[in-house]
Amino acid sequence: MTDLFPYLIGGLTNGALYGLLALGFVLVYRATSVVNFAIGEFLLVGAYLTYTLSLFLPLLPALLLALPPAFLFGLLVERGFVRPLLGRNVVAVIMATIGLAAVLDGGTQLVWGPDLKYLPTGLPELGFEAGGVFVPSRAVWNLLLALPVGLLLLYLLRRSRYGVLVRAISEREVAALALGIPTARILAAVWGLSALLATLAGALLAAASGVGYNLVFFGLKVFPVAILGGLDSVGGALVAGFLLGVLEALSQRYLEPVLPGFTEALPFLVVLLVLLVRPYGLFGQREIERV
Description:
The chain contains twelve helices and two strands, in the order ααααββαααααααα. With 291 residues, the chain is an all-alpha fold. The longest helix has 28 residues, at 5-32.
């Protein structure tokens, strides 16, 4: 049984990042009904920002200093790519985010090059041993940063004034405009927050595996996580992230030796099975339209 604990710890470690990234994805979808197919590139840009700052600073200050530019990057994306297309055909918006992903892929390679880059400094060592099981420093940092940030975001969405405004806009944007709510500024801030969360996840990934195009493939996991939790459930994204992380760990331990490659397909298979029973996800709200 003790040999299972390292896999579970690894699952929780990845699950924390899945949930963090999915939070930003679901927040954007809930507020604007836009499916951001460039979320993996947001992760990549945030990781490169952190890498650049880490050349001059220790990693933790570099990460903190990367967050404001990442927020500004999200604002610029919303203003330049998304806002002009709001109200248009949904296919046009989807194609715009796919085009944005391609532009960011090429732009990052043009600026930083195609080679995998490793951060010159790491996060302070926080690993410890408990009950004969070693908990690595990466797991501690992921949980220490991702989980409180996710819970704080959920609290602010439910209790703070701006959280209430975001929820009001997500329910009825026209009514929110009629009531004088500054929807344009709030929606821009939502995109900025999404980029900030992606940067935090990207920096934590970069600290463990370096910075390169491989991070985009990690970003693809956000889609099954968001759908599993429910596209309109911010809290569901966090729970689904941990759930899929643990399921991947169990698959890696028991199924991968028998079915090589199965772990990579597992998130999408789980989502397919869940959607057959609950088309709106585990925590999504069921919408009934009367005509």
